Each structure stands twice: as structure tokens, then as C-alpha cells.
Amino acid sequence: MTSTSSSAWARVQDSPWFWLLPAGLFLLVFYTWPLLDVVRLSFTNASLVAPDYDYTFDSYRRVLRDPSTLRTLKVTFLFAGGSVILKLVLGMALALAIDAGVKRGLHGIVLVRTSVLAAWVIPGVVVGVLWKILLSTSSHGLLNYWIQAAFGNSVGFLTDPDIALSTAILANVWRGVAFTMILLYAGLQRIPPELYEAARVDGAGAIARFRFVTLPTLAPVIFIALVLITIGGINTFDLIMALTEGGPARATEVVGLRVYQQVFQFMNLGRGAALAVLLLAVNLLMTLIYLRLLRINRKTD
């Protein structure tokens, strides 16, 4: 009996599902159940100040008919799109520069990598506060202090509706470009040196090698980076909350911040849940688009 039990236990331990069970339970309790509960609450008129609620489509009707919802989505896409483009371009430039520096044995590469990564590990709230201190128009704004000393006027980086969103994008890029750099740098290490040698023999210059060797080989990594940083940009909340709180004149109000306002400022749990489901739908749509593009790219190759 003991031998049979030991044999059965050994078979259980050999099963991959046994080792995946703890992670599966963690995801079920802390991700799947809260997600399903948010979807359920989105079909209610629940409030944080009232214990009773009814099941209704009123939250979705109000969210979809509210003119500010479209404006918030527009701001979210502009913020995410600007962040994605700059993160990809700068991340690629940094990855190529560090890769070239390592191959040539240049000094200071470790310092450069550490400096870039330092911004990535800082929480978004802290990044928002740091940039707010740096760009504030008050007497303690470091950058505006020097601008005012040089030109006599300060710049409303955080108070001018025309440039506040651009400022938030730059802060987000500064924070997250390291993640893109890591992915692309890892992808560069997988490119066989023989491909570059063959391109050189054929007379290809640096730009041609980048276009016909580096980019096609890195395409899967670039698509993965696109998906991840797009989702990250669309879901950004903490940095904007600390930096501008959605202002000025709601110029930086993204969907994530709107969800927070509906739930914790207006106590409207149902409407906040409906906005959260809308945000989830946008995330899924963008992911499906990128995956479709990735399949098309693979078929073309």
C-alpha cells in the first residue's frame, strides 16, 4: 500500500500541472476572480456609499453617451502612441549603441546601462513627483528656474494644455525606455555575426545592414515590445496621477485616471467598472491587431 501511494505521489510530482497549480491558484484568486467581478459590477449601478444596487446597462449607457469618454480615449491613444514611438526609436538606438560599445570593448558601457535601467525600476508615482519638481513653474521648479534666469519667462510644462500631454509622454518614455532597450538588446545578441559578415562582403553599408539584416531578424522581438509597451501606455495611471492629476483642463486625463476618479472621487463603482471593461476591451483589441500583424509578417518572411 505504501509502495502504491509512493508511486502515485511520484507520478503526481512528475506532472507539470502539479508545479503549475500554485501559480494557477494565485492567478485565479488575485487576477481572474477580480476581473470577473469587475465585469459583473459593470452591469450594475453599484456605489461605494450605498449597500444596495440593481443589475442594469445604465453604467454602459452613461459611459458611451458621455462626450468626455471619447475625449479621454483620444488622450489615452495619443499618450500611448507617442510613448510607443519614442520608446521604440530610443530603445533601438540605445540597444544598438550599447551592443556596439560592448563589441568594441568601450569603457563606461556598464555605467550607461545602469543609468538607463535606474529610471525603469523607480515606481511611476516617484517618477511623476520627480518630474513635477523638475518642471514646476513655482520657485522650486529646477528647469524653469534656469529658463526664467536665461529668458525671463517660465514655461508651463504642466500648466499649459497644449504641452502638458507631451510632457507626460516624455516622462513616461524616460521611465520605460529601458524595458524596450532590454528586449531589443537581447534580440541583437541572437543575430548570427555571419549575417553581418555576408552583408559586408556584398558591399552593404551600416544603414543597409540595419535595414536588411537587423530589422528583419528583430521583427518578432519588435512586435513583442510593441504589444507590451502599448498595453503599458494605455494602462498608465500612477505617473499621470502624480504628475498632472489629469490636468490642466483634462488635457492629460487618460482612461485609467478616469476609472480612479469615478470610483474613488465620485463613488460610482458601476460606472468605474464599465470604464475598466472598456479599457480591457481596448487592450484586447490592440493585442489582437499586433498578433495579426505578426502572423502576416511571418507569412511574408
From TrEMBL:
GO biological process: transmembrane transport
Ranges in a coiled coil: none
Cell membrane among keywords: yes
Membrane topology of this protein: Multi-pass membrane protein
Membrane-spanning parts: 17-36, 77-98, 110-134, 163-188, 209-234, 273-291
Descriptive protein name: Carbohydrate ABC transporter membrane protein 1 (CUT1 family)
Family designation: Belongs to the binding-protein-dependent transport system permease family.
Domain of life: Bacteria
Organism encoding this protein: Shinella granuli
A Gene Ontology term for the protein's cellular component: plasma membrane
Annotated ABC transmembrane type-1 domain residues: 73-290
UniProt-listed Gene3D superfamilies: MetI-like
Localization per record: Cell membrane
Keywords: Cell membrane, Membrane, Transmembrane, Transmembrane helix, Transport
